[in-house]
Amino acid sequence: MPRSSRRSCHDRCAQADVTLAFWVVFVAFVGAFAVQVATRVRLIAAAPGEFALDDMGGRIQRFLVDVVFQVQTIRERPIVGLAHAFVFWGFVAFGGYTTVEFLHGLGIADLTETRWFFAYRIVLVPFATMVLGGILFLLVRRAVFRPAALGSAVSIESIVIALFIATLMATFLLAFNLDETTVGGRVNWWVSPPRSTCISCCRPSRSSCDRRSLAGFRTWISKRKRSGSRPSRISGRRRCSTLSHASNAGVAR
């Protein structure tokens, strides 16, 4: 067999091994993620109150204002709220990029060499910069300055998650200067997509972010006391605490 053919066969076998290894990691993390989702579904199901979908226009408006544009979060705490919004908006923008990278890693489809994906990566650079800046600010605030509202104990899970997010953005920006065929490029690629799954799998089910998401979801679909009336605006921290206590009691039962 010619040397070029042997080399080509070796490369294909090596790529198949990498794809298989990535599938193993992917399935393991998806299984862990499913367990976390099941916990959240139990919390929502155990929460008191009736669910309803009346006044869809008002609910959609509130979703756009308070969830998509993060207006209430920014209004309550402008600097910290903007940092949270940068992270949220960045991860929304990265949804397509993560999907393409997973399709490539799993051997399903390779769209990474297309023109639109290259243009998409360029557009993501400012988002990656915003996320990196926002998450580093939040990390230093939580780990070093420790405002009273965050409590006296440092949450190790939140620190690890913040480091994962910072690593994701750093590896994305580094990819522009690294050749994927080199050892450094391959290591950089391997670090990025699995971590994005690991963030979802390893997040604690009682984290403040999760409670805020659950509270926002329940508020959006909960039945209102008076037709056409807008639910009272209480702070996100109080909403989260109320739902957390009610949900924990329901799960305990």
Description:
- This protein has 253 residues and is an all-alpha fold.
- The chain has a domain at 3-46 and 77-204.
- The protein contains ten helices and no strands.
- It has helices at 3-46, 56-68, 71-76, 78-93, 95-105, 115-145, 156-174, 183-202, 208-221, 236-252.
- α1 (3-46) packs across α10 (236-252), α6 runs antiparallel to α7 (156-174) and α7 packs antiparallel against α8.
- The longest helix is centred in the first third of the chain and has 44 residues, at 3-46.
- The radius of gyration is 22 Å and the shape is globular.
- The protein starts with a helix and ends with a helix.
- Mean pLDDT is 77; it is low at 204-211 and 225-253.
Q: How many strands in all?
A: 0
What general form does the structure show? globular
Alpha-beta content class: mainly alpha
Summarize the helix and strand pattern as letters. HHHHHHHHHH
Please give the largest β-sheet: none
Summarize the structure.
This protein has 253 residues and is mainly α. It is built from ten helices and no strands.
Write the layout of secondary structure elements.
Elements lengths: L2 H44 L9 H13 L2 H6 L1 H16 L1 H11 L9 H31 L10 H19 L8 H20 L5 H14 L14 H17 L1
Helix pairs in contact: 1-8, 1-10, 4-6, 6-7, 7-8, 9-10
What labels would you give this structure?
mainly alpha, 253 residues
